[in-house]
Amino acid sequence: MKPLIAIFFAAVLTAVEPGAKDANEMLRRVDEYRNPLPHYSVDVDLTLLHRDETRGFTFRVYGKGDEASLLQFRAPATDKGKFYVMLKDDRSIYLPDASRPIRISPLQRLVGEASNGDVARTTYGGDYDAEIGGEEAVDGKPAILLLLKGKDADMSYSKVKLWVAAGSIEPIKAEYYAMSGRMLKKLYFREFGMLGARRIVKTIEIQDAIRPDHRTMMSYSNLISKQYPDKMFNRNYMGKW
Q1: How confident is the model at residue 117 (pLDDT cuts 50, 70, 90)?
Q2: Partner of 180 at 20 to 30 A CA spacing, among 11, 155, 190, 198?
Q3: Domain boundaries, the chain
Q4: 40-68, pLDDT tens digit by residue?
């Protein structure tokens, strides 16, 4: 079986266009599966699935390329009026009863195993550089391992291991690591769907690295191409537009 997989890898890497052999080009293609639009809004539903607890939450994410993203809390009703903005050098949350936005870490948990950064960011390329880490099989299917390293020291995760399908470069799974080298969580890209003529990720499962029975499902819908005004991503205008 292993020789056949090796032959398949050789055929795939020979057949794809030259640019696709570059790790960062592969990462760009992965990002197109996660979100093919430079300016957008998308609804995100999070379902917390713990051993004895199931809860649902709804958010809307507004994005401006790799520069900025805004997370609007929509449900439950007790969370309405909250906003989280994520820029290169500014990550803040706005609470209706606070006099000013509060700076917080993108690693801070939002719901279950999903952090603020997991929901607010829909791509990898703006935050990470990639290199090819090898070829292996995932669930019996040939895959390529991409090693992602944060471009900035204060990134949500210092490194990410990302497995993509050989040939299509669809994301399969990812492991997220802290600066200490400890694995924090795993992501599984569970469901894909069509947006016009494009195939995109629809559902991601986030699993705690220590407690695998602690899972959070993240589902995307209503992806819209639209350019929003810059003031939406200004921490001093959150909730005022």
Answers
A1: confident
A2: 190
A3: 2-237
A4: 999 999 999 988 889 999 999 999 988 89
Which of the listed CATH numbers 2.50.20.10, 2.40.440.10, 2.60.40.10, 3.40.50.2300 matches domain 2-237?
2.50.20.10
Tell the burial category of 50 from Cβ atoms under 10 Å away from its Cβ (0-12, 13-18, 19+).
Answer: middle
pLDDT at 162: 98
Tokens 């690693």 sit on residue: 107
The most confident of 106-110, 119-123, 172-176, by mean pLDDT: 172-176
Determine the length of the chain. Answer: 241
**From CA 105, how far away is CA 180, in angstroms rounded?**
17
Residue 114: Cβ within 10 Å count:
22
Joined together, the tokens standing for residue 188 give 């599984």
108: confidence class by pLDDT, cuts 50, 70, 90? confident
Dihedral sign for Cα 72, 121, 186, 177, please.
Answer: negative
Apex CA 113: angle with CA 233 and CA 240, to 5°? 20
Beta bridge partners of 219: 45, 203
pLDDT band at 90 (very low <50, low <70, confident <90, very high): confident
Q: What pTM, to 2 d.p., does this model score?
A: 0.85
